[in-house]
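Good morning C.,

I know you're traveling, so I'll keep this short. The sequence:
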Amino acid sequence: MLDTALGEPAVGVRVELAQNTEVVASSETDEDGRVRELAADLEPGRYELVFWPPSPFFTKVELEVELGEGHHHIPLLVSPYGCATYRGS
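The tokens, ready to paste straight into the viewer:
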């Protein structure tokens, strides 16, 4: 997670992974704004990724994603004026 207003990683931000509204894993971003491993051995399927960013406007950002096998990198860029995400490599 990157705080684009400050131009630096967003540290200590809660991130949750849920399936069918049930939280299956949660963590906080590290000093690089990353969660290194949110959940191991996930079954492929549809999940909700919930970010609780340090923004006065975007207080909760939810993404519904279809996760397959392997590693997933899903960055969130957030500022008081906007937020964006993409599927990373």
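Safe travels,
E.
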